[in-house]
Amino acid sequence: MIRINLLPQKKQFRRRGEAGAPAEVSGGGESQVWLAFVLGAVLLEVIVLLFVYKTKQDQLTQVQKHNTELTGNIDNIKREIAQHATIKAQLKELRDREEAIQKLQAARTGPTATMLELSRIMTPGRGPTVDRDKLEQLKRDNPSSVPNGSWDTRRLWLSGYKEADRSVKLSGFARDGEDVSEFLRRLTLSDYFYEVKLLPASKAVDATTKLELVKFEMSAKVRY
Description:
This protein is of the alpha+beta class. About 60% of the residues lie in helices and about 20% in strands.
């Protein structure tokens, strides 16, 4: 009978088993390290994403705030523009009223002023209202356009004066054509009259004195 001692073989097997055990433990540790690395990378990526999101959110908040300010400024400008239009309309209304008042005052005092000017023109030793420098310049440039200071104003008289919309028409009688020309010069030179025109004249005979006269008419515009 052959006997086989198996005890040493069992010890050797245990040694092999014990020797193999550490290898199995070492493989599990590497997996845990790799898993920790992956989790760390994912966590880092999440942190980066959260940081980027926070940054973008702050930027969006700033943009929205800026847009709100711009909207407020636009609304203020619109209100100011609306108020400006209202104020402008009010100013125009005030100017129109002031202009209307000035026209009324001119309509009241203007005709009186022109009649006084005609009185000065027809007064012996006097003449039309004119700027002194302008008169001196006329004396140098065109002496014939200057009124004759020695003219006898009794040689001409007015028989009619009509005014409408600052346009006047004068009519009267004169001893001769030179008297009419002198009156025309004075009227043209006056600051109160402009666009003075002599209309066609005709001869007439005075019923009382039987003197031959010149019947004349003039048109002009008044300035007041």
